Amino acid sequence: MNVRPSAIILQDERVLTLRYCYGDQEVYALPGGNPDPGECLSQALARELHEELGVQAEVSKMALCGEVIWPEVKKETLHIVFLAAITEGVPALNPVHTSALEMVWLPVAELGTKLLYPNVGGHIIGICEKAANPGHVGVIDQPYIK
Hints:
Shape: globular
Largest sheet: 8 strands, mixed
Helix content: 10-25%
Distance between the termini: 19 Å
């Protein structure tokens, strides 16, 4: 099972996402990536945010975690989603480190209508509304993305 840390970065009731297009599917990913050997999750996330978006960020507490299981390709990923804040810089895509098409600040209210990776829009809405502190959410309902 792979482990992928990612970030919820909030600004003016919007969440920072990276937009990808797979076939005819638009997917909005929380920024993050895979740890390098010997790297803890918060260090990996801070490094990924710097590489992909050119920002320094403070990685805070874990907001939620859950598994994506894709039997189609026999792949499982444990997603650990942290709250994070940009402490320096203005985010801009670095095409050397990401294949994202663009950076999108999605309104929190729209998270339930978009395909996210990981697909936790409803949980993020609950966190933002202070109505939930989900912790482990179990298996994430993630449509297979080709």
